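Notes from the 1:1 (GR / supervisor)

We went over the backlog. Supervisor wanted to see one worked example end to end before approving the batch request, so GR pasted a single chain during the call. The sequence is below; no edits were made to it. Supervisor asked that the structure be written out right there so they could see what the output format looks like.
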Amino acid sequence: QVQLVESGGGLVQPGGSLRLSCAASGSRFSIYTMTWYRQAPGKRRELVASITGGGGTNYGDPVKGRFTISRDNAKNTVYLRMNSLKPEDTAVYFCNARSLPENYWGQGTQVTVSA
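Structure output shown during the call:
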């Protein structure tokens, strides 16, 4: 069982930046593809960005060029650097670890972009 704990969310003005972190328990972190999802009120959960154990990345179209996902396997942590934030980025951001059939979720961290 892997436990995921997100941190770094908060209130930020449009155009600002935040860095989210997701710390994982266990000793096999490097085998998991790590993904950030988000869910805004009344909307479906959507993929934000993912990173494989080898460092390959993928981004959702709404965040390309603004967000950067990275990981530190020595610290069992994945990061999401979010720049040029927009009000439409407001959502609960969830961390996911997957290496099928294993699939784990964090509790989420709220990001609010508002003036």
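Supervisor's comment: The chain has a mean pLDDT of 97.
Batch request approved.
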